[in-house]
Specification:
The chain is of the alpha+beta class. The chain folds into two domains: 96 residues, no CATH class; 113 residues, no CATH class. The chain is 29% helix and 34% strand. Helix 1 runs antiparallel to helix 2. The chain is elongated and about 70 Å long. It starts with a helix and ends with a strand.
Length: 217
């Protein structure tokens, strides 16, 4: 089944390098990406990202070397490797958070948060966001939570970050607890330029702040 063991070792090393380039911890480095290949952000609001493009090319080279190093089962092997490549960081992060991590480093977020904004009158909105955070450590953690805009709009209209107008949002989550956060705000935006009038969004991005430490999720 193995044609060339040395080529397979080189392929494994390149895959490892690729994973390290944009390992999704402690921050999600693809947060403002508009084009993504595997774990590599190719383009954001400022243009193309050279490191993301290089990482993508290295990933393709690793796949080619994998095929060269195998005698058969090429398609099956590629599918398995891509699945492992996608899931391994999640597995490693989970182990770290449940054993060694403390504070906001032990907090995980599935990315499935939602926000909805309803116009009441000119420059006045009702804002409501819901998200789930999981403290995987054995100690209670407290932090400040900020909402980040997710670049859905080409003209950079403010949306999710409007929830910060009445902030900061101070959050406390018990040890080994999963908390559903439901936040409702009456938002007076008379002095806030370039904001939406109404709308909703999914997969919202957030920032956790604890003193000098912060994480973007």
């Amino acid at each position: 089944m193995v044609r060339n063991k040395a080529v397979l070792i080189v392929s494994a090393v390149i895959f490892s390098v690729c994973m390290c380039l944009y390992f999704p911890f402690p921050n999600n480095q693809t947060i403002d990406a508009r084009e993504i290949f595997m774990s590599f952000p190719i383009r954001n609001q400022d243009g193309y990202l050279p490191l993301g493009i290089v990482g993508s090319l290295l990933f393709l080279i690793a796949l080619i070397l994998l095929i060269v190093g195998m005698k058969k089962y090429h398609f099956r092997t590629i599918v398995i490797v891509m699945i492992v490549y996608s899931l391994l960081p999640i597995f490693l992060i989970s182990i770290y958070q449940e054993t060694l991590a403390s504070g906001i480093s032990a907090d995980s977020y599935d990315g499935n948060g939602t926000c909805n904004f309803e116009s009441l009158k000119d420059d006045v909105l009702n804002g409501e966001c819901e998200l789930v955070l999981h403290n995987r450590s054995n100690e209670e953690i407290s932090f400040k939570l900020e909402f980040l805009d997710s670049y859905h709009f080409e003209d950079d209209l403010r949306m999710e970050s409007l929830m910060n107008v009445n902030g900061p949002h101070m959050i406390t989550i018990g040890a080994n607890q999963k908390e559903t956060l439901q936040m409702k705000e009456y938002l007076e935006l008379y002095d806030v330029p370039n904001h939406i009038q109404s709308g909703s969004s999914n997969y919202i991005n957030i920032k956790l702040i604890d003193g000098e430490s912060s994480r973007i999720l």
